[in-house]
Amino acid sequence: KLQLLMSKGIPVIDIRETFEWRETGIIPESHLITFFDENGEYNLKKWLSEVDTFVSFEKPLILVCRSGRRSLILAKFLSERGKFRKIYNVTEGIKGWKRANLDTQAFF
């Protein structure tokens, strides 16, 4: 399903931390914008301004993290505040992508 959504031009935003991108690699063409820092803190205004550079708030987007937990929290948070028209969550995260033997890119 994720590949189908991506083929329609819906952007993927990987909200994990840098060390996680290095450990597993990233989904090709995904946008790397960490949401929660190592302390569980976030800066919504800064994160939204980075997202705004490539996706309109009226357009759908896809969120991915390691296992789907953080991206689900963020998807609900953004939905409740009406920040985006449609938000998809990758329910199994990058772990599910890798289990399906789909390609990742190395992150340095």
Topology:
Elements: H1 2-7, E1 12-14, H2 18-24, E2 31-32, H3 44-51, E3 61-64, H4 69-80, E4 87-89, H5 93-99
Parallel strand pairs: 1-2, 1-3, 3-4
What do these coordinates show?
With 108 residues, this protein is an alpha/beta fold. It is built from 5 helices and 4 strands. A 4-stranded parallel β-sheet has the order 2-1-3-4. Strand 1, helix 2 and strand 2 form a beta-alpha-beta unit.
Descriptive key words:
108 residues, alpha/beta, 4 strands, 11% strand
User: Helix/strand-derived class?
Assistant: alpha/beta
In whole angstroms, the N-to-C terminal distance is 28 Å
Give the count of helical stretches: 5
Oligomer: single chain
Low-confidence stretches: none
Mean pLDDT: 95
Strand content: 5-15%
Bulk shape: globular
Describe the biggest sheet? Answer: 4 strands, parallel
* Strand arrangement across the biggest beta sheet: 2-1-3-4
Q: Return Rg in Å.
A: 13 Å
Helix content: 25-40%
SSE order, one letter for each helix or strand: HEHEHEHEH
Tally of strands: 4
Quick description:
This protein has 108 residues and is of the alpha/beta class. The protein has helices spanning 2-7, 18-24, 44-51, 69-80, 93-99; strands at 12-14, 31-32, 61-64, 87-89. The protein has a four-stranded parallel sheet with strand order 2-1-3-4.
